[in-house]
Amino acid sequence: MQSRKLPLTWVGMVPFTLFALLFLIAPTMYIVVGAFRTSDGGFTLSNLVNLFQPTILASYWISIRISLATALIGCLIGFALAAAVTLGGLPKWLRGPVMTFSGVASNFAGVPLAFAFLATLGRLGLVTVLLKSWFGFNIYTHGFNLLSFFGLTITYLFFQIPLMVLIITPALDGLKREWKEAASILGATGFQYWRIVALPILWPSLLGTLALLFANSFGAVATAYALTGSSMSIVPIMLYAQIRGDVLQDPHLGYALAFGMIVITGLANLAYVWLRVRSERWMR
Questions:
Q1: Among 7, 147, 148, 232, which residue's CB has the most CB atoms within a 10 Å radius?
Q2: What is the mean pLDDT of residues 18-37?
Q3: 3-state DSSP call for residue 43?
């Protein structure tokens, strides 16, 4: 009787599967269950009801506004940059450095990113000091504040724009030259080609990337906490305070906050996947 051979092709999936179970799926389920539990282990909906407190609703609203702002601006600038190096008349050798920098910058976040912006645009940052000493212009006396909504938005754009470049470049590469040539033969201008042909094809990719950038910004905590501390009450910082127990000492309310974040980012990621599948139909 011939013995069955071990399907070695699945062995490579074991480390990733264990990692996902231990550090993603299991903690997520623990948070979801904790959102519906009391301190003594009983079932309750009061944790979710407490999410409708004015302070918590305000923190969700601030987080949503920052995420929308960085997603929209990141999509616009990132799309323009990707289109310039992919379809524009720029030298071809620029594409490699731009894509390499985008790959690095899209993962540059947390304390190093916060320190970089404090050293650049802080009250004693390099750019702030140079503008004041060379031109007599103090950006802080004219309303700028790095530890604010606008400052945090600028900081998030450092990794949002490169992420947009990385995601939208393959979609731009998928635009077939025959489509532009056919539009030109039919008398369409460059603007008409983009409005009637290219953008409708890219629209699912653009909307999907917008949803992904929203989720990426909404869940960021290390950069915001290192930059602003507790001066901005966005959801990740409130969640960190609840879980740590230094402020309200209610970890189950923290689980409820995390559950709300999971729902919002989950919907954004589902929108990205669905729109991505739709866009790939045109790229085949």
A1: 232
A2: 88
A3: strand
